[in-house]
Amino acid sequence: MNKLVIIGCDRSAGEALRSLQETGYCLPEGVIYQPLPCGGSLDVLHVLRALESGAERVLVLSCYADACRSFNGNTWAEKRTAAAQALLTEAGLGQERITYRQVSPNMSADLGAWIHTLINLEPVEAQDRA
Amino acid sequence: MIIAERKPIQEITASLVPYKNVLMVGCNTCVAVCLAGGAKEVSVLSAVLRLALRENQPELTIAERCVERQCEAEMNAELATEIGSYDAVLSTACGVGVQTLAEQFPETVVLPALNTKFMGRPEELGVWSERCAGCGNCVLDRFGGICPVTRCSKNLLNGPCGGSANGRCEVDPVNIPCAWQLIYDRLARLGQLERLTAIEPAKDWSTSRHGGPRRVIRKDVKL
Predict the structure, then answer these.
(1) Largest CB tally within 10 Å, which of A53, A85, B37, B108?
(2) CATH 3.90.1480 matches A4-125
(3) What are the boundaries of each domain within chain A?
(4) Per the CATH hierarchy, to which homologous superfamily does domain B2-117 belong?
(5) Best CA proximity match to B7, nearest among B86, B90, B63
């Protein structure tokens, strides 16, 4: 079972991840990265399918506003992440399973920290019970 | 086109409680255009339902299909060989499509996943608004192409009520323009303001829902 699926714009999140890996970093076990050509190509279904396939959490990454090569891909990524979160909330599942962050290619250290934090959180079901 | 929106997920999950093997059937016509029940929405809704019911109904399986136009029996024929193997069908068509499936497959439970709202048009990305109430006796020729039956909150046919202010309707000034302001502006633009001096007689509502369920018969094309 994957603990975390990272879905990200390959121009920002992908670059940040590759920079991180150049320092010797390896994605922890149970963490997979799914690149998108742009945050604007994120679909609600990408997020839901990741959760359906067993991911505990999904991290969606797109560029900062005004940094998107396709102008507003980050806006769509954020809107569609919010739509997926709203669906989970409506279904009685915790929206905290889905996290959205804006990232730039030089934020490899931040990306490493986010991954570390997310995979070390309590399982969502345990949080729900609490 | 027909505009619909998804029912609340809790309502849908409650309707699925008695069933274990469900076929979700979308419709690729009106409800696909209004992003409520096409192939994409079937995939999203079935994924959410599987996630939502994973703990409480782990034995539930949901298969996905989408037909081109669920309100036409011919288009649903492709479902005939498999529909009997499911406990229930969850339809993301409008009410017409749901009823067509139910009539066509009388042994099958057919459940609606959408609320059918109105006949309307897309105003902008993500916004649809009502344009036709299906009154059965179109009056658009007399009102500059703007329907007072549909777009006036009170269906007034002889001018605005006292609730029209600044071109907006008192029912919801933010979202509803006064239909009579629209009619006036349009007729002024067309140079036909004199039309407003004519008294519109009381409408015969027997052509609308008030005359019971309606049928249209074309003898020239009926075998």
Answers:
(1) B37
(2) no
(3) 4-125
(4) Response regulator (3.40.50.2300)
(5) B90
Token output for B58: 């782990």
Domain ranges in chain B are: 2-117, 133-203
- Whether residue B10 lies within 8 A of chain A, CB to CB, comes out as yes
- pLDDT higher than threshold 70 for residue B210: yes
Distant-in-sequence, close-in-space partners of A45: CB < 8 Å, separation ≥ 6: B40, B43, B44, B47
Q: How far is CA A22 from CA A14, A16, A26, B122, in A?
A: 12, 10, 9, 49
Question: Are B10 and A52 inside 8 Å of each other by CB?
Answer: no
CA–CA gap between residue B75 and residue B64 (Å, rounded)? 16
Read off the pLDDT of residues A55-102 as tens digits, 9 standing for 90 and up: 999 999 999 999 999 999 999 999 999 999 999 999 999 889 999 999
Please state the ipTM of this predicted complex: 0.91
Q: Looking at chain B, which residue has its C-alpha nearest residue A93?
A: B52
